[in-house]
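Re: export button greyed out
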Amino acid sequence: MPELPEVETIARGLHATLPGRRILSVRLGKMDFIDDPAAIEREIPGTKILAVRRCGKFLLIDLESANGDVRNFSLLVHLGMTGRLVTCEARAPVLPHTHVFFALDDGRELRYTDVRRFGRMRIVTGGVRENTLDALGLDPLEASEGEFVALLKNRRARIKALLLDQSVLRGIGNIYADESLWRARIHPKRLGANLSLKELRRLYQAVRDVLNDAIEKRGSSIADYVDSDGNLGGFQRLHRVYQREGKKCFRCGAVIRRAIFAGRSSHFCPHCQPPPRVSKR
DNA sequence: CTTACGGCCTGGGTGC
DNA sequence: TGCACCCAGGCCGTAA
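Workaround output, generated via the alternate export path:
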């Protein structure tokens, strides 16, 4: 499941080889996950790739239009659950569910593969001022401790929901929310406003440590995730709670539990992460 | 405005 | 072997 560390790994991988390359042509398969397929087919061929970067869980491929026009623009890609963005030789075998092919001027292709097609793809213009991205909260790796604390300390929602809320913090998904809460020893059902300053600081550090460790291990390969070269990540081996229901807590030995909060599964240690006193439901 | 929650997207895995 | 159904995670719409 591509979250911040996985998208960061892919962005770095693509940024290492794509800038300067020109996109010669575009071929589309299924396109129901693309906002405006005609615009992609019309405006992408002939463009030069300037940079690849991450914003939350979004990938942005910055492009220079074919004629060197002033109007630069970007291809915005969200990988959803099963999306893959991989470069390979143009003659390389095509994986099933590959729906977008960008032919590059060095004989390679940039391909988008997505079994479930929960991903999204669209062209964005006008630099940073773009509504999809404007709605995003702070990047947890860029926010200061003070900003992080201020974001959460007055919120009456469950801390798990707040961590997942992209308009609060951008880039955290279910894996890293659960792993961060375990490291900070905070139960997912606690309310933001009920956390002590000490706990919020602990959570800030936990989130950063988890994300940085995961980036270092090139992300978590749970089901479909691979990096931009098609290689698996390594952080799934270091998960402490995610998908460890019934196994022993690495810290205290208690049995890790899984529970559904607001339709989302949460993995936690009932001993290290004590539940709120009065918990409704 | 804030929060909670159901539903939707799709198809692989599971269990009968 | 076939088949129905559960479920994944993000996001959006709705309601309280």
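The longest strand of chain A covers residues 48-55. The button fix ships in the next patch.
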